[in-house]
Design brief:
elongated; single chain; mainly alpha; about 450 residues; TPR-like_helical_dom_sf
């Protein structure tokens, strides 16, 4: 913390960063009108108003200025009447308090004194709404005291409006209960907001709705060609679909926009690895680590790259860094144990395995790796307990049952071996090695 203020960009608040002062002034005034409109009739609500949600007013011929003009005429006339009454009566009444509650809390968000990081923030209307409610109450009281003949109709209309507002509040609250509902509701208000499409895509991706996710990420990039987060996420989806060339293009575009985007550097490294551009991939991983030193996932992927190149010691060091920064990184622990096992470093496997399990006691993969090593050094009883724990944590993994079957086979417990082989084949009938082991076992038993 260097006691520095937050950093905002034109994406957060386009009007504040417009090159022309006239554009800024006209756009600000339109935003003031929209805030008043939301206060008066909160129908068009959106979780985010940035990224082109409200296009800038760049011409005096923009028809939206008509609403701005009407807004200021009504406001100016109301202020004039208010000041006139204060001067004539020489007293500050409730109307002054109501107007103060509307105006003063809104001033910090008005961009008049400093740039803010939003276009419209509905939370800034909470206090002004108190002043607005006070004005409504004053108006109703005035109608009551005026002896107007149809005042009952006016009061009835007031209650109808209150009922509508209550229904709208309940409806809006229901939108906030579910992310996908909240983001989808924003499409009706801000279809030009790239962030809205980005969030819809993200939720769709999490729900494995890939077609919607791809379409919405592309729409977000279309609306904001410099949206590096959308490019990165779209590239990840394309990579999973093995569309590596297009993924590479998107990631390079994202890095052109934000050169210090560590996640994009790592993802580009993964894509380049799949394209067999290993030297470039290594550079990307190291660049990602340069921008984000404590980056366990990147160290993990760098270790995988070294493993493919038979650079075993470097792979182990990379995975060591991964688990140092994130002791719960099961994949890095598992790869370390498997590689050390293949290098016949059995004692180190068992020592590291205990450390790994202390951080990840519910990881079936770690129990499985330790069990395999114990089996190789003929500690069958201990190996059995680790295999059984792995199966207990993940009973539908055919390989766990198969390897336990091999252990029993070597241990001479042929009945249990046969049971495990059959269980493995029941889960995955395509395990040829397991099928062969079972056949050998049955032949040996017949003899």
């Amino acid at each position: 913390m260097n006691f520095e203020g937050p950093t905002f960009t034109s994406i957060d608040n386009p009007a504040a960063y417009a090159a022309s002062i006239y554009t800024r002034i006209l756009s600000y005034n339109y935003i003031y009108f929209l805030n008043f409109l939301l206060l008066l009739w909160p129908q068009w609500l959106c979780f985010d108003w940035s990224m082109g949600c409200i296009p800038l007013i760049e011409s005096v011929y923009d028809t939206r200025l008509l609403f701005v003009l009407i807004f200021w005429i009504i406001t100016s006339f109301s202020v004039y009447i208010l000041i006139k009454n204060v001067i004539e009566n020489e007293v500050l009444d409730a109307k002054i308090m109501a107007v103060s509650l509307i105006v003063l809390p809104f001033l910090p968000a008005s961009n008049l004194f400093l740039r803010v990081g939003f276009v419209i923030a509905e939370r800034n209307l909470l206090l002004p709404s108190a002043g607005f409610c006070l004005l409504v109450a004053i108006g109703l009281k005035k109608i009551e005291n005026a002896g107007i003949s149809n005042k009952s109709n006016t009061v009835l209309l007031f209650y109808i409006v209150c009922a509508i507002f209550i229904v709208r509040s309940v409806q809006r609250n229901s939108n906030w209960l579910l992310e996908d509902k909240l983001f989808s509701s924003a499409l009706d208000v801000c279809p030009l907001n790239a962030k809205v499409h980005y969030n819809i895509a993200k939720i769709a991706g999490d729900k494995n709705n890939r077609s919607l996710a791809l379409a919405e990420y592309r729409k977000a990039i279309e609306l904001n060609p410099n949206y590096e987060q959308a490019m990165n996420n779209l590239a990840n989806l394309l990579r999973e679909d093995k569309q590596f060339e297009e993924a590479e293009i998107l990631l390079r575009r994202a890095l052109a926009v934000r050169p210090n985007f560590a996640a994009a550097w790592m993802n580009l490294g993964i894509v380049l690895t799949n394209l067999n551009k290993t030297r470039e991939a290594e550079f990307c991983y190291k660049t990602a680590i340069m921008y984000r030193n404590k980056y366990p996932d990147c160290y993990y992927n760098l270790g995988n790259l070294y493993l493919d190149q038979k650079r075993n010691e470097e792979a182990l060091k990379a995975w060591e860094m991964a688990v140092t920064y994130r002791p719960t990184h099961v994949a890095a622990w598992s790869n370390t144990l498997v590689l050390m096992d293949s290098m016949r470093q059995y004692e180190q496997v068992l020592e590291l395995g205990k450390i790994a399990l202390s951080h990840n006691p519910k990881s079936p993969a770690l129990h499985f790796s330790i069990a395999n090593t114990l089996g190789k050094i003929q500690q069958f009883a201990k190996a059995e307990s680790y295999f059984l724990e792995a199966i207990n944590l993940n009973s539908q993994n055919a390989l766990y049952h198969s390897n336990l079957g091999v252990l029993y086979h070597r241990w001479g417990k042929t009945d249990k071996a046969r049971e495990m082989y059959k269980k493995a084949l029941q889960i995955d009938p395509n395990m040829k090695t397991t099928e062969l082991n079972l056949r050998k076992l049955l032949i040996a038993q017949e003899q």
